[in-house]
TrEMBL record:
Residues that span the membrane, as ranges: 12-30
This protein's UniProt keywords: Membrane, Transmembrane, Transmembrane helix
Record lineage: Eukaryota, Metazoa, Ecdysozoa, Nematoda, Chromadorea
Protein name (record): N-acetyllactosaminide beta-1,3-N-acetylglucosaminyltransferase
Superkingdom, natural source: Eukaryota
UniProt xrefs under PANTHER family: B3GNT1, BETA-1,3-N-ACETYLGUCOSAMINYLTRANSFERASE 1, HOMOLOG (PTHR47411), I-BETA-1,3-N-ACETYLGLUCOSAMINYLTRANSFERASE (PTHR47411:SF3)
Length: 429
């Protein structure tokens, strides 16, 4: 590149540009995001109220430990009959944490509505009583304790808030919110606190941490337990990793094997999850489809390390993996951070044959826009969380490793920072 002669004027101009870039970058990474009250209070005060085992599954009562617990989480506003699909789809135990925001007290109409919903669910569907354990998490800023007697808690709530007409008293509160209000909700959702809470109250040998609307191929649990019994008893640290896909909401008959899934892909009604990004892509997909499928057993296709900071493998593991870092915020690397720490602990990811997960429905434009706004808004706090994480990993795992560093500049305002840092190159410097 041709360098312009450094005259005093050009030196002054370049200095001013560098200073402007410095202050602009400083503002981006330090300015205060709007309305993230819940998480700021949580991080500074560690304030919450937990009510474990509002409902306890028969599988937990029987202490069937050689199973895979599906770990789920949700804000109370989004609990609906869609949960029935999970109960029919997943064969093993489910542990779900339901969160209530800082404006909702424990003894409240909202709590009573959710209790009413689950009472009816347990009455209507035998799979609920058999599989589902439910825990409540209140992100208030006053209390800081755990309620162990869930029976008395439920009786107290029902005494003060009787539900006589569910549809009238417990109507959908999210019907008409704006994309900015939705973004605020996303930023204030204590996602990793909820994940860890639900996980701590599972009692099985294996766990699978997922999101709502993540559904699985037929005999997924049985196949992965069989693979786990062969593989996870070896020396070394492994996570049994499965491929994930998105399928169109118009599909009524859900894919339970690779043949059906491949057919939907050919019709462009199914795709690799986030197929336009590197976060979930796993190579050798065609070879994976060609592998003969069994109803009971499965093997593995290959083993790989975490070499890409944006890759977010989904997996079944033993219960001794690290917990999710609770200083990370949705929707910026809140889930990926677990994979980063697993890399420091020398985990390898075993790509399983045959089994897969799928998300029923592709995000709408408004939902995607809300997530983008939430990412932009939370960037300064996310940037700080990633810096602190890198320092903690360096201190905790001092040995040499090839783990990717946290990708602070690959999303939202971070992309702007990259552009700003490239500006001096226009002048050849």
């Amino acid at each position: 590149m041709y360098l312009l002669p450094l005259t005093p004027f050009k030196i002054l101009l370049l200095t001013m540009i560098i200073l402007l870039i410095y202050f602009k970058v400083l503002y981006i990474i330090t300015h205060d995001p709007f309305d993230v009250t819940t998480l700021k209070n949580y991080i500074t005060k560690k304030s919450y109220t937990k009510v474990p085992f509002i409902y306890k599954s028969n599988i937990v009562v029987r202490n069937e430990t050689c199973r895979i617990t599906l770990i789920l989480h949700s804000s109370y506003e989004y609990i609906s009959n869609d949960l029935k699909t999970h109960l029919y789809n997943w064969d093993g135990p489910i542990s779900i944490a339901i969160t209530f925001n800082e404006n909702i007290s424990k003894i409240s109409l909202q709590t009573s509505c959710i209790l009413y919903f689950f009472d009816n669910l347990y009455y209507e569907i035998k799979e609920a009583k058999e599989k589902l354990s439910v825990h409540f998490l209140y992100t208030n800023t006053i209390d800081n304790y755990i309620i162990y007697n869930s029976t008395i808690f439920k009786e107290t709530v029902r005494h003060y808030f009787k539900i006589e007409n569910y549809n009238k008293m417990c109507r959908d509160v999210n019907g008409n919110i704006t994309i900015f209000e939705k973004a605020k909700q996303l930023n204030n959702y204590p996602i990793n606190v909820a994940r860890n809470f639900a996980r701590k109250h599972s009692n099985t040998k294996y766990i699978l941490i997922a999101d709502m609307n993540h559904l699985f191929s037929k005999n997924f649990e049985k196949k992965m337990i069989n693979l786990g019994e062969k593989f996870l008893n070896k020396t070394g640290k492994y996570a049994l990793t499965y491929r994930i896909f998105e399928i169109s909401k118009s599909i009524k008959k859900l894919p339970y094997n690779k043949k059906m899934l491949k057919n939907y892909i050919k019709k462009k009604k199914a795709f690799e999850f986030h197929h336009y990004m590197s976060a979930h892509k796993i190579p050798l997909l065609n070879e994976w489809f060609l592998h003969p499928e069994s109803n009971i057993e499965t093997g593995y296709q290959f083993i790989t390390n975490l070499s890409n900071s944006q890759w977010e493998p989904q997996f079944v593991s033993l219960t001794d993996i690290p917990y999710h870092d609770e200083t990370f915020f949705y929707p910026v690397r809140d889930n990926t951070v677990l994979r980063w720490e697993m890399c420091y602990q020398k985990y390898q990811f075993v790509i399983a044959h045959d089994v897969f997960m799928f998300h029923h429905g592709i995000k709408s434009y408004h939902e995607s826009l809300s997530i983008k706004i939430a990412k932009d808004n939370i960037f300064p706090l996310a940037f700080k969380a990633m810096n602190n994480f890198d320092k903690k990993m360096k201190k905790k795992y001092s040995q040499k490793n090839d783990c990717p560093k946290s990708d602070k500049y690959s999303f939202g305002p971070g992309l702007k920072i990259q552009n700003y840092l490239n500006y001096p190159k226009i002048f050849g410097y």
